[in-house]
Amino acid sequence: MKYAAVVLDLDGTLLNSQKKISERNRKAIIDCYSKGMKIIYATARPPRTVKYLLPDELYQLGSFIYYNGAYVDCKFTETTLHFPIPENISKEFLEYCSFGKPDCNLGVEVKDHWFSNKEVDYSAVTNVKESPIVKTIQELKQFEVTKFLVADIPDFNAILERYSSKLNLIITDNGKLLQVMSKEASKEQAVRMLCDKYEISVEEIICFGDDHNDLGVFKVSGYSVAMGNAINELKEISHEVTGTNDEDGVGQVLERLVGVTQSYFG
């Protein structure tokens, strides 16, 4: 089958444990692009961090799905989409966390701006050195929220029970982080929208991932590849399991399925 696009998660997938992209993976992506394939980066990360993590040559090749689908940007199709959390639900969620979970660390992403309800070091769960701007709950209520990040509580069961019907809730980072988006926002929904813009079918996609936020994309893509370090739920529904993110798992598959870099790596 001739594949038209490759969808790449970043953390735990394209990025290795040092948050770097190997030469093998880099060359595989460039070769895919040179063959006419669309490159789509689909991540939970915000725009500012993705630009920092990706080498410029790879950044320039891609369309971007940020915040698990809550914000989409594609210069090739001149597409920019934002799916914020509805204002009434956002305010309710802030009140609930403020009074019901007062010890939680609450990050608030507003497009590419980062705020928080308290001074906190998020580096342990987000692997970034930057810090959010601290705002009061009343100040946070004024924003059109793209995504909430909830950390540092024993479990998320109460939040899941209360808001699973109203919001898209995903637990990642080995159970340490709850990511909260609009019900309209998901990686798979964003992938479908970009495919429509590119006039290609989701069946023509190869996708790679490792965590819960990749499950939806795996279910709609033509060929899904779970990393060797992926969660079991993802491996169980994937078409194949490749090497880990420290073993160039992305490059391994692209070499075989798309016929790229074979002479380079044998």
From TrEMBL:
One function term, GO molecular function aspect: phosphatase activity
Stored InterPro entries: Cof, HAD-like_sf, HAD-SF_hydro_IIB, HAD_sf
Pfam families: Hydrolase_3
Gene Ontology annotations for the cellular component aspect, listed alphabetically: cytosol
CDD domains: HAD_Pase (cd07516)
PANTHER family: HAD SUPERFAMILY HYDROLASE-LIKE, TYPE 3 (PTHR10000:SF8), PHOSPHOSERINE PHOSPHATASE (PTHR10000)
Protein name according to UniProt: HAD family phosphatase
Species, as recorded: Paenibacillus sabuli
